[in-house]
Amino acid sequence: MCRFLTMAVPGVGLLTRLHLYAQRRSRVQRPVLRLLSCPGTVAEDLRRDEQPSGSVETGFEDKIPKKRFSEMQNERREQAQRTVLIHCPEKISEKKFLKYLSQHGPINNHFFYESFGLYAVVEFCQKESVRSLQNETHAPSKGMEVAIPFRSRFFNLKLKNQTSERSCVQMSNQLPPSSKKLFEVLCDAESVDDQLNALLKEFQLTEENTKLRYLTCSLIEDIAAAYFPDCVVRPFGSSVNTFGKLGCDLDMFLDLNETRNLSTNKTSGNFLMEFQVKNVPSERIATQKILSVIGECLDNFSPGCVGVQKILNARCPLVRFSHQASGFQCDLTTNNRIALTSSELLYIYGALDSRVRALVFTVRYWARAHSLTSSIPGAWITNFSLTMMVIFFLQTRSPPILPTLDCLQTLADAEDKCIIEGNNCTFVRDLNRIKPSENTETLELLLKEFFEYFGNFAFNKNSINIRQGREQNKPDSSPLYIQNPFETSLNISKNVSQSQLQKFVDLAQESAWILQQEDLGGPSMSGNQPWGLVALLLPSGANRKSLGKKKSRKPASEKVKVLLESIKSNRTENFTNTNGKRNVSTQT
Ligand code: GTP
Ligand code: MG
């Protein structure tokens, strides 16, 4: 029976949960000030300062009614349509800049960031302001090369006279922290729970980065709209499923549903009017043709889109490119609506309990640190599979922390009914209808149990399945079998080799062992030795040695230096700005 079935009485379960968390946390929590503010303003600074050091503002705080995925996407999309991207001169006065732009209408929000130059993201209150700005904008004066006259929402601001003013704008950070900064933060934490929350806080997408992602989709939508005026370009994957880290790729879905529906709905009396269209033999060929044309457009006309690659023979055809101004590596697809639904499901799981995201971020980071995941396609485990493993593990706790997909299906109403390509994708979309878990286990315990669980999992005979939340017999001999939640006959980790799986199991066992040793002593007993999460991130084998050694008396900065040296010599690239990329050929 599904324990999450009972309708949540808004507030009551949540209050109980808040109380339990408060008991667990050693630090006093202050209320988070919510101010409608521009990043870089005093109000924004105040809001940041008010953030209690042990807690993480996730955008999913318990007291706030949780938004449906579709509501959130629509709101963000509408915001993005009122937004422009401006490449600015290095020396710019923020005040004068805003005054100049305000001629076109009131500005709702803005921020600056650096990415091979200074950029401003400016959100007007009304769409008309964007049009007004476009109407007043000049085509660049001719130099040696000829400009293609394309009017986008990506501008260049030039100064007529060089100014002697110093630039005094506050930058919004779009990059993940350096390994040094992360280790300092982790060493400063007071408990393993604090470390996990700190890692989440450092890596999660910021409000500004999320805005930039939606804006980038909106700019690509403008290009695609030249051919398909009713199309929508929707972000999916980790940019929106609450598990994205700064620097992750931007997965985009070109949604042509509106265009398709328009051609079937218009009837009047005995007449039925259809568009004259060209036909092709299969959906796949249609997808390839559409993406091929959009890829050409991006390559030829879209400012800032570089390195456009059309990867049309992959199982899921896509166009890959870099959006230079935002720094995002983008993957544009058009026929994988199920991936959009998977993102919605993960969004729900991420929003249900604050421990989920902290655990997923930690496991993903741990896997990257040990080269279990990679940016190169191959036999590695993907971030998506790791997320499924954490969700599955949390479904197996007693009481469960997350409901099974079957349970979410029983909570669905008529509005939630959804069949995609014959697959049942029905589940409850309203987060407030899911009863919060009564499980109060700490993150530290969950992390240790996660490693123990998968360090001893019978991968040779059992599969992982978040639909039912329990182990099942494997239907084939793939080393790792994680059932695709919607296309249930498919394995999302079909690409994983036996040796990669064994590496995962060995590291999980070692990590469980390290955390068990901590249990015996605790961080306070660890002296100057790396403890908790830091110990887990050290190269395999280093811990057994270091835990066996006599404790040294080095200052904190020295400890961080030693750790970094030890890690650098093993695998430097894992701790820099890495993006886990999808294995194009094996996606199932
Ligand atoms: P990052 O590594 O942070 O980019 O995580 P991600 O979740 O965005 O993964 P990725 O970019 O590889 O894929 C984007 C989305 O495509 C995922 O969130 C899933 O919804 C879907 N996806 C990725 N890999 C698979 C797969 O192997 N099978 C299926 N069915 N869907 C996948
Ligand atoms: Mg992605």
UniProtKB/TrEMBL annotation:
PAP-associated domain segment(s): 446-489
Ranges for region Disordered: 568-588
One Pfam family matching this protein: RL
BP-aspect Gene Ontology terms: RNA 3'-end processing
CC annotations in GO: mitochondrion
Keyword field: Magnesium, Metal-binding, Transferase
Residues of the Poly(A) RNA polymerase mitochondrial-like central palm domain: 193-350
Cofactor(s) listed: Mn(2+); Mg(2+)
InterPro entries associated with the record: MTPAP-like_central, NT_sf, PAP_assoc, RL
RL domain segment(s): 69-137
Coiled coil: none
Protein name: Poly(A) RNA polymerase, mitochondrial isoform X1
GO molecular function: metal ion binding; poly(A) RNA polymerase activity
Gene3D superfamilies in UniProt: 1.10.1410.10, Beta Polymerase, domain 2 (3.30.460.10)
